[in-house]
């Protein structure tokens, strides 16, 4: 019999993972980031080695891939690929968003599902992890085309989800409109009214502050980190990227906490408004992006400020950075700018917006860095609260939900401190990874070999 080593080696582990998952570069990146902090910890706790916990945690429970056929407005038949990665249900039903974007592939969804395992564990709520979506591009599609796509997508997905099985929500390209189309179709097919999707409209089981939750949570997390240092967002100049749901409400909460937001972006470039956003400008952005589905350059025309085509905001001066667009939008060069310009902290609103090299550069320069699995967990946390409200068939008030969200972000911060305190600083990457890991790992150990 082959002797099993009683330690894990990072390089050997990563070689095996890359070999088993060829070409899935974002998944490799997400696992490596976690493995770097987890493996030394695992090596000190033989029960995790003996039970092969990390090997099992990096393999999704199952991956469902399906054809989605729909008809466009011209009567042409279109075919897309749909996915649901049910990653881990050790501590609750699979839970995570659906992304509709042309870049969607299995590797991206596995990275997102893997991250979700740790994020959902950190929320303190009983949620497992999953992620799904399709390579469908909602941009330029009519409302009816989006509806037909959502219905076709749900016709297959409905066979694999359920309120106690797997509860999808939104992500990039999937907002209230798409969730409504999918929930309607799910309800029709299953002939049941259950909280099987979250992010629903208030009229049919949605939760107050779900739409604000990811952005608000990201700003609260920044406030927690600064408070721990005797500081606050008040008076700070903030760079925010993105202009979708996360960026909009991160910007709103930053403003409410006294910060000045001078940038927003979309895939065509970024706007630089040195006077800072205010409620009126934010309302314009919410309408532009959520209802009119326009380009961010229209903001620059309307409010007479600069639009930087095809650029990201990270070379500007400021104090705090909030990447809220998408993965890998802060590369090493961008991180060097943040270091040179004396940034104090960064809170990730998006999932893995900062590359591995960029994170290392920021940490080396002692910039306080909050990984997305901690900083943007507010969204899925309020999804968890939506599940609870649906189960008890009640709707909580706004104040109660905002208080609960604040408490959850505070508790996530505390877990990062418990697991990430180093001699002279808090390592939030390590803290979030270890705290997220332990709860899921201990549940898996308790279940035995399954
Ligand atoms: N897509 C969001 C995330 O990345 C929310 C998921 C959810 O609410 O289930 O966490």
CATH architecture level-2 label of the largest domain = 3-Layer(aba) Sandwich
Fraction of residues in β-strands? 5-15%
Average of pLDDT? 97
- CATH class of the largest domain, please? Alpha Beta
Q: What fraction, in percent, of the residue positions are helical?
A: 40-55%
Order of helices and strands: HHHHEEEHEHEHHEHEEEHHEEHEHEHHHH
Hetero ligands: glutamic acid
Describe the structure.
The chain is of the alpha/beta class and 450 residues long. It folds into 3 domains: 48 residues, no CATH class; 133 residues, Leucine Dehydrogenase, chain A, domain 1 (Rossmann fold), CATH 3.40.50.10860; 159 residues, Rossmann fold (3-Layer(aba) Sandwich). It is 49% helix and 15% strand. It is built from 17 helices and 13 strands. It has a 5-stranded mixed sheet with strand order 1-2-4-3-5, sandwiched between helices. Strands 7-6-11-12-13 form a 5-stranded parallel sheet, sandwiched between helices. The longest helix has 23 residues. The two termini are 22 Å apart. The model has no long low-confidence stretch (mean pLDDT 97). The site of glutamic acid has 11 residues, from strand 3 and helix 15. Glutamic acid binds next to strand 3 and helix 15.
